[in-house]
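Structure tokens
________________
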Amino acid sequence: MSLYPGLDAPRTKAYKTIWTGIFFVALILGMAGLYVATKSVDYVWRWYQVPDYFVYQEEVETLSEIDGLVDRIETQGTATHVTVRGEGETETYTLPTESLLAAEGDYIYAGDPLGSQKKWQTGLLLYGLWITLKASFYAIILALIIGIVTGLMRISDNPALKWSAITYIELVRGSPLLVQLMIWYFVIGTLINRILMDLGISKIPTLWFGILSLAIFTGAYTAEIVRAGIQSVQVGQMEAARSLGMSYFEAMRKVIMPQAINRILPALAGQFISLIKDSSLLGVISVRELTKVTREVVTSSLQPFELWIVCAALYLVLTFGFSLLVQKLETRAV
């Protein structure tokens, strides 16, 4: 018997072709409408400048590190080796021949330029994307651990464990993430770093307070997802496992959890995709993630349209890629 009567009826080839055509026509019309809208705006589009915010070449000066005479200059093709001899020390520098600024016999002071060379540098958008990836990755791992542990505590018969889990879940879910970020950074973070400084230990970087805040916030929702997944498995599964001589924890690990994880993967994917997007709030505590560096670049370049569109596209790539990964895990789990 069909679970979805009327919805899973066989479709003809013509039916699929027509509706596929309608989709692509609507997509083309939407893109054409967007193009017309952009042309009607009094704005100078400068897409050619966007790649420079990912990687760019910078002219970097090669500076002498010591005081002394230019003792020897050797040219080999396009590269030149400059040897500076000081009192009891010698330094050799390699730089492009065409950028050479010194000659043999010149007296050089520390900090004087000898030449320059072009080096590839990481742009702000690529740096912000890396910080977003790093924060999201660690926060997802921590949130998953917190969620599984708290979810198991939530269904425990131990009153202390159960009520501790309920208290944590309700407290975290009952306040906005932005407020929790502020508390973690300005209150808890300040106290912890003050104690560490008094003990002569280096401070914890701001990024880690942001990661911890994201993980604790998402872990509360993950705990409820895990609890619902475990309770969706029939009670008879646990009873059968225990009747075979398995302990409670062994039955949970080998029988219940594999089934529960397979069922909760879509919900977990949605929660972790929200975490990736919520990482954009880390900018309020001075973490230079993707959204914050985009604001900085927009302020300096006055290119809001191009840069915010690129920022949105990068978040889409991250979330869509994560969604594909979870779908692959679902397929393998089945």
